[in-house]
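Internal tracking record. Fields below are filled automatically when a chain is submitted to the structure queue. Please do not edit lines marked as system-generated. If the sequence contains nonstandard residues, flag them in the REMARKS field before resubmitting.
Queue: standard
Priority: normal
Entity type: single polypeptide chain
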Amino acid sequence: MGRIRSALRAYALVSDTPEHVLELVDRKVDWFELGTFATIICGVLDPPYDTMTIAVAGHPPPLVAVPGRPVALVEVKPRPPVGTNIADRPCRSTTISLPEGSNVVFYTDGLVERKREPLDVGLERLRAAISPGPAERVAGEIMRRVIGGTEPIDDVALVVVHRAT
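SYSTEM-GENERATED OUTPUT FOLLOWS
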């Protein structure tokens, strides 16, 4: 994972779009990391930071919280994970609007998946735990309401991006 993360960072420096970043990472993994695959989500903000362009390779879709609106899953156009040798499946990006005060929540499946529970239940639990606000407060509330005192069965990663007013 460290080599894939390093490649992702390097390609993000030289590419203009998140879908191109994921295509380059996929090519690198296919050639140099045989037998390896990874899910990745890549989001890019450009000034004035009122939109975010997102590309997904096998990763759960982010959620967006906009003041005055229900929290919603971002409708992304996913491709399979990098390293699955599916070069004929082009990567596409989705651009979302980020009004002032909005949050975008990225997470791993370990946050929402539970044994003997439909994935939709975990996604709804996450959606209900999200509200617009400062990233630190929102992240803490998500962890308190979604994980609480339970021990996750899988790794959990959470990133909350907040567009300040």
